[in-house]
Write a structure and sequence with these properties.
Elements: H1 14-21, H2 35-39, E1 48-51, H3 57-64, E2 69-73, H4 76-89, E3 94-97, E4 110-116, H5 124-137, E5 138-149, H6 160-166, E6 171-182, H7 185-190, E7 204-205, E8 211-222, E9 225-226, E10 229-230, E11 251-252
Parallel strand pairs: 1-2, 1-4, 2-3, 4-5
Antiparallel strand pairs: 5-8, 5-11, 6-8, 7-8, 9-10
Length: 256
């Protein structure tokens, strides 16, 4: 069977499309956080929001590090699996069935926001609305960790220029880093021809047999200050955000 990355566009809505994907093995559900999130873990402070948390891999990772974590996803099956994982591991995470497009109406605030592959799902006005929602729930001076596809990915994505443009207002870009992500082994077993060359645009197979790909991690901060002190001079202020990545694709991560 051949994996069709454009199939999502054939569904009446993103919710329907993602719900359908969870009937099988989502390529992003690797059973752990993507490697770039592990690398920046010491920079993440609580409370943490995992936007588009899926089955909770990243949220549970940060909960195990002692952070207060909330994970949201609009797919009920994803949240059901996330809650089951939390119960099995004896971890406390608030997992909510919630559409990230409603963040602008939510009266909650977080020091760090994680986005592991949700940002590139949106386009145009929806993307701008999502970013405005992120700014609404992220405390002034907080960090966003965003891990997302570039425009070269089969599913589509965003360029560095587009990232800088959409995060121009109310955000301060901190860094852009080249990173690697992974794809679910269960997915590649189900779709062995999905990445026939190990992944497009520089992808490769690791010695462990995982499909890996180059990605970019862009780190930034929401503009503002905490308790009258600039975030740059307050060690407790930094908050980062990142997003989800899949092996086999070059990706860009914007942290603001």
């Amino acid at each position: 069977m051949q994996y069709d990355p454009s199939a999502m566009q054939n569904h009446p809505s993103a919710h329907v499309g993602f719900t359908k994907i969870y009937e099988g093995n989502p390529p992003w559900d690797i059973g752990k956080p993507q490697p770039p999130f592990v690398a920046v873990a010491d920079r993440v402070i609580g409370p943490v929001l995992d936007a588009g948390c899926g089955t909770g891999n990243t949220a549970l990772f940060f909960a195990a590090r002692g952070h207060r974590v909330t994970g949201i996803d609009f797919v009920e099956e994803a949240i059901r699996r996330a809650r089951a994982k939390a119960a099995e591991r004896g971890l406390t995470v608030e997992f909510l069935t919630k559409d990230a497009m409603t963040l602008g109406e939510w009266e909650r605030s977080f020091a760090s926001v994680i986005d592991s592959g949700l940002f590139h799902v949106y386009a145009g006005d929806d993307q701008r609305r999502y970013v405005q929602g992120l700014a609404h729930v992220l405390r002034p001076g907080g960090r966003l960790f965003l891990f997302t596809f570039t425009e070269e990915a089969p599913e589509g994505g965003v360029s560095r220029q587009q990232l800088h443009e959409i995060f121009e207002d109310r955000w301060e870009v901190e860094s852009v880093e080249l990173v690697r992500g992974e794809v679910s082994p269960a997915f590649t077993a189900e779709f062995p021809d999905a990445f026939p060359k190990g992944g497009p645009e520089g992808g490769s197979r690791s010695s462990a047999g995982r499909i890996e790909s180059q990605a970019t991690l862009h780190r930034g901060r929401r503009a503002g200050s905490v308790a009258g002190t600039s975030c740059a001079s307050n060690a407790a202020c930094p908050i980062q955000r990142s997003g989800r990545s899949h092996d086999g694709f070059r990706q860009t991560v914007a942290l603001a």
